[in-house]
Amino acid sequence: MGERLKVGIRIRPHLAEQSESHKPQLHILNKDVYFKDPATQNVDTRSFDYAFDSQDETQDKYASQAVVYDAVGPGILDNFMQGFHCSLFTYGQTGSGKTHTITGPQDNPGIVPRLVTDLFERLEKRKQKESDFKWEVQVSMLEVYSNERLKDLLDKNSQPIRNMRIQQDKELGYTYVKEMTRKSVKDAHQLLGYVNAGNADRLVASTKLNVNSSRTHTIVQLTLSQESTLVGRKQILFSVMNLVDLAGSERVRRTGSLSNTPEANLRLQEAVAVNQSLSNLVLCIQRLADAGSHKTSSPGGGGGGG
Ligand code: ADP
Ligand code: MG
């Protein structure tokens, strides 16, 4: 799909609590993934822009958090710093490793902490070379519930509400929520402090509302303004990056005696709503990819990037 859209797959280790009989047989060769269905023994092959094998830490081919970041992160940052808007999503079933990959535990950080650290290092480096280079980074963080309520994760006291205004800045070509808290940040440590607090708030809010936190989408939105002077002319760039940990796609089944309880019905509705929103996202991405194969966009004009 070219430079504008890249799709990778990561296979996490088989978890101790998963039954051995359901252990899928997955093999990665270059960018191809071979999947053998344990029930039918049929083999399915898919190709990706990236394929990361994180099944077995003892093997040379094991894709650590660093390996994943080094493949995906620097390219997105290049685009972001050149003034393109970009987005990174993790998509998959609940338990497939989305949060591990995008956020990761403190002692084994995922893409977001690495990318943010890299971003500020690059900005500082440029500032050292060009004394009149100015930049501003802002962060906001948002949780989207399956009933379309939104919660501002940088405001501890905010409740998930329905009537937040989702707006499009047509001139700058990006989408944002008007009421969202936006914090200006001076370094990676400060930014990650906000993101960590937001993630903690996310868990508390989900638990209070009795919603499984894997049923919500979380978006960290970074905006970057850069001002520099190039051969006597002032250049101003503005770009937005969305880092999205999507709700888990669900296998929807209505079976067993529990399925008629109000609780089970609510869970079913939630799962259907999550799947619907993920299908819509896939359609949007497909449209963008189709448009991207006919057109190229210029910096600041939206679209581009990973
Ligand atoms: P999701 O966000 O998709 O629901 P998680 O990221 O929470 O899934 O991962 C589910 C479990 O699998 C967690 O216990 C996580 O630590 C573990 N896990 C996921 N990916 C990896 C990986 N690459 N290496 C080791 N453990 C992983
Ligand atoms: Mg998760």
Automatic annotation (TrEMBL):
Example GO molecular function: ATP binding
Which residue intervals define the domain Kinesin motor in the entry? 4-306
Give the InterPro entries listed for this entry: Kinesin-like_fam (IPR027640), Kinesin_motor_CS (IPR019821), Kinesin_motor_dom (IPR001752), Kinesin_motor_dom_sf (IPR036961), P-loop_NTPase (IPR027417)
UniProt-listed Pfam families: Kinesin (PF00225)
User: A cellular component term (GO) from this record?
Assistant: microtubule
Extract the Gene3D superfamilies matched here. Answer: Kinesin motor domain
Q: Which SUPFAM superfamilies match?
A: P-loop containing nucleoside triphosphate hydrolases (SSF52540)
Q: State the family named in the UniProt similarity comment for this chain.
A: Belongs to the TRAFAC class myosin-kinesin ATPase superfamily. Kinesin family.
Superkingdom of this protein's organism: Eukaryota
Record: residues binding ATP: 92-99
Alphabetical GO biological process terms = microtubule-based movement
Q: Which UniProt keywords apply?
A: ATP-binding, Coiled coil, Microtubule, Motor protein, Nucleotide-binding
- Tell me the protein's name: Kinesin-like protein
